[in-house]
Amino acid sequence: MSGDDTRSRIVEAAGPIFAEKGFQAATIRDICQAAGVNIAGVNYHFGDKEKLYLEVLRCAHDPKFLTSADQLSGDSPVERLRSFVRLFVIRMMTYGEANWKMCLLRHEVVNPTSYGTPMIQEYFGKRFGVLLGILDEMVPQTMPLHKRHKIALSIIGQCVHYNVAHEVINLLIPEKERAQNFHQDQVCDHIVHMSLAALGVEPPMGDEQKIGKLRSVEVQT
């Protein structure tokens, strides 16, 4: 087995383990057993557990995900907000072992380490900037920056909630209801309408007739 193959196997094995247990609880022994290599292999390729963790974080970080407004569809700020939320929700609502990358980032958000903090700041900072750019077109120019920040955090919080609390959601919401009413697009529509209603751009929650008319106008334009 080549050195590159060994390195890749270690990273692929370490990702789900760090995602499940977090940095502190994960052990090099567990990772080596999963990768089918000896501890000397980790020392040779990465030096120590911290450097291995940083490499796994780099693999989990998707530099192409919502890093600029050019990735969003739509001409109006409302359409771009819908595109932003949809992309975010899809990423947040992708579960399972295959999505260990989001689980790892979630661990780093809930229990941050000094190793991962700069990367997490970059990961969320770029998306935060994209969202603020959309909101700047929707709120009065006189609105204080701290209020725009709170609005942006509220929107992001709604999206992230479906990842961080998905196990709690499964306990609270019956499976049949989730299957019928909690698809990614349905969650996206709910978050967007909640946000636009709070901003006064769309009618209050529950006024479905007015919402339908606005959506039809939006599609036609």
Topology:
Elements: H1 3-25, H2 28-35, H3 39-46, H4 49-60, H5 77-92, H6 100-110, H7 117-136, H8 145-164, H9 166-172, H10 175-181, H11 184-198, H12 208-220
Helix pairs in contact: 1-2, 1-3, 1-4, 1-6, 3-4, 5-7, 5-8, 5-11, 7-8, 8-11
Characteristics:
mainly alpha; 12 helices; single chain; 221 residues
Which spans of ≥5 residues are poorly predicted at pLDDT below 50?
none
Helix content: over 70%
Q: What sequence of helices (H) and strands (E) makes up the elements? A: HHHHHHHHHHHH
Instruction: State the helix count.
Output: 12
Describe the model.
The chain is 72% helix and 0% strand. The chain has two domains: 3-60, Arc Repressor Mutant, subunit A; 69-220, no CATH class. The protein is mainly α and 221 residues long. The radius of gyration is 21 Å and the shape is elongated. The chain is built from twelve helices and no strands.
